[in-house]
Amino acid sequence: MSLQVENLKVYYQTLGGDVKALDGATFSVADGEIMGLAGESGCGKTTLGHSLIRLTPPMRFIEGRVTLDGKELPVWDMEEMNVFRFKKISIIPQYAMNAMNPTRKIGKMTAELLESRRVNAQATWPELKRRLDLVELSHDVLNMYPIELSGGMKQRMVMVLSTLLDPSLLIADEITSALDVSSQKAVVEMLVEFRNQRCCNSVIVITHDISILYQIADSIMIMYAGQLAEKAPTETIIHAPRHPYTQLLISSLPEIGVKHDEKRLSGIPGRPPLLLDPPAGCRFRERCPVAFDACLEPPPFTEVASDHFVACWKEA
Amino acid sequence: MLSLDGVSKVYQVGTFGGKELHAVSDVSFDVTDGAVVSLIGESGSGKSTIGKMILRLISISAGTILSDGVDISTLQGRALKEYYRNVQGVFQDPFSSYNPIFKADRVFKTIREEFFPQVPGSEWNNRVEGALQVVGLNPAHVLDKFPHQLSGGQLQRFLIARALLLDVRFLVADEIISMLDASTRIDVLNLLADLKSRGLSVLFITHDLSLGYYISERSVILYRGCVMEMGRTEKIYDRPLHPYTQMLMASVPRLDRKWEEAANVMKGQQSDLISGCVYYARCPVAARNGMCSRGRPALVEVEDDHFVACFHAGIGTMATARSSER
Questions:
Q1: b/e for A270-283, b at 16 or more Cβ within 10 A?
Q2: Do B214 and A260 touch (CB under 8 A)?
Q3: Comparing C-alpha atoms, which of B213, B252, B299, B234 is closest to residue B38?
């Protein structure tokens, strides 16, 4: 077992009280697994990703336990996490376009980054060049400033940087949302290639685009309003989802071959609850077409079939 | 009906404006009444530029845009105001379309002052409520609120309601879906489909091919300012003839099938080929040193309502693909 998360709660401190953005997540990611993490904006997927690596105010650790390769991660302690960051656990941030220092050439910046982590830059250089070949970037980029690279090139450069020390867990946060379809395909396929070449062990891919996850992920986890709704192997989530939210979400996605006058799709009525003071019980209750009395109690995230977890009273 | 005839947009770039950047070159297509036309392309393809030229937010370098036979670049004063009563735009980012200091419903007040000063207050309020209901909003929930109190989907629908109040006949919808969540984006798309049946024409600008298929009868595929392929949506999606369109179709992430193992499409970035096909550098079937590098292919009708700008289109594509395999 590569990553195990138990009952992780991370709230945002605001003047109006705690915003319960991540309220009790329990799941695991296996060795070599690419897990997709999807949900609407504000469902807590980025909070979950960030709390595993860099939990800064206004985020506040409430409780929970995170274990990576058998070692507990001190996610609540910024200083102690330095031992793990970049080496054991790494992130490709959402705005990788702006992630590099604009005043340094990329090669120099990379060397400084490595030295700051007490890694010999010179010894790492041949591997860095091999990785650049892997993402089809010319070695010349090391002598360029970030501004000289296109968006897709910057994205790939940051991908190489994030995985340079072979982290056990890589978090890819919305890496495709700013790219064109053709670059999107290239970037996520490279991510899979990185995993195959063991440049990183397990990957969590955070995105709102479920169709991309269908192409590359081994399993998909769906979040709703700060809680886990469903986790299952990719084929199961897409073709046989069991949580009503997942079912409605998947059926609302337009696809090539679906036209409005032949097959009219519908969205999910209503809005997610405010997380400052979320309703008791199942948080999807108010929008759920099959809600009943039991839904006034919060549903447990239980395993209904092998590797298939659902938080719904209808399935429990 | 709106028609574009040989429309181009050239920007002067470089330190002293010595270089030319062709954002849009020689684009012609029509949008008939009550039709939805998708304008599809990657970033930098000039799709938003075309929308802005139709809205007269930027000038046209060459060619003409005709609205019911009238050249829109000649419009001035009252005629221009009348044009904006019929043609409006809604843009990608609903949050930056509002002034955060004022309440969101100010967008309705401004058009009343500008276009309908003679309408009495009570009747105007009824009209506003009617328009909000058409776009699926509950007036009691959304009126008298500041922009930050409303969601992206609500703000986006506010802007569509504003266009409805003007009773527009043509809407430029520039990436209006991309900032919305999956569960609400389909509602906005359905709304456009409903408005179409009431006679509204829509230019639907998008980079998402599945959204384009869902909503539009006709599609225009753009690459670096040039039309690569256009015609009936089903024809383009079912039988893409241009290598660029084929590459796009193969890259779309789908839920019914997985990507095929294909050659990496990132190779061969842009080139500064002045003559020749704009897709030359990335094209897998281009005849090197042949006509593809010398002349720019014209848009030809290969079948009824299906135009392609490629020397290898149609039967040629198959033949070249086979010869390159050898």
A1: ebbbebeebeebbb
A2: yes
A3: B213
Are A31 and A159 in a shared domain?
Answer: no
Q: Please give the helix or strand (H or E) that residue B315 lies within, else none.
A: helix B315-325
How many CB atoms within 10 Å of residue B256? 12
Helix, strand, or coil here: A210? helix
A304 and A212 share one domain: yes
Counting Cα atoms < 13 Å in the Cβ hemisphere of A45 gives 26
The CB density around residue A99, as the number of other CB atoms within 10 Å, is: 17
Domain encompassing residue A128: 97-166
Other CB atoms within 10 A of residue B287 CB: 16
Beta-bridge partners for A169: A89, A202
Tens digits of per-residue pLDDT, A1-38? 689 999 999 999 988 889 999 999 999 999 999 999 99
Q: How do A227-233 and A219-224 pair as beta strands? A: antiparallel
A182: in domain: no
Q: What is the pLDDT of residues B176-197, one digit of tens each?
A: 887 777 777 888 888 888 888 8
The SS3 of residue A238 is helix
Q: Which residue has the tokens 């979950």?
A: A48
Residue A246 sits in the same domain as residue A131: no
The interface pTM score, or ipTM, of the predicted complex is 0.81
A181: nearest CB among B187, B207, B233: B207
The CATH number that applies at residue A49 is 3.40.50.300
The model's pLDDT over A131-177, given as tens digits with 9 standing for 90+, comes to 999 888 899 999 999 988 888 888 889 999 999 999 999 999 988 87
Question: Backbone phi, then psi, for A283, in 5-degree steps?
Answer: -75, -15
What is the number of CB-based contacts under 8 A between chain A and chain B?
118
Interface of B with A (CB under 8 A): 42-43, 151, 181-187, 189-190, 193, 207, 209-211, 213-215, 233, 237, 247-249, 251-256, 258-259, 264-267, 269
Segment (H or E) for B227? strand B226-232
What phi and psi values does residue B64 have, to the nearest 5 degrees?
-135, 150
CA A49 to chain centre: 5
Cβ contact, residue pair B189, A185, below 8 Å: no
**Which amino acid appears at position A106 of this protein?**
I
Distance from CA of B275 to the nearest CA of A (A): 24
Q: Are residues A195 and A292 in the same domain?
A: yes
- CA–CA gap between residue B202 and residue A260 (Å, rounded): 15
- Backbone conformation region of residue A253, classed left if phi is above 0, alpha if psi is from -120 to 50, else beta: beta
Answer whether residue A27 is part of any domain: yes
A38-52: b (≥16 Cβ within 10 Å) or e: bbbebbbbbbbbbbb
Nearest to B187 among A182, A184, A267 (CB): A267
Q: For residue A48, which phi and psi values (nearest 5 degrees)?
A: -60, -50
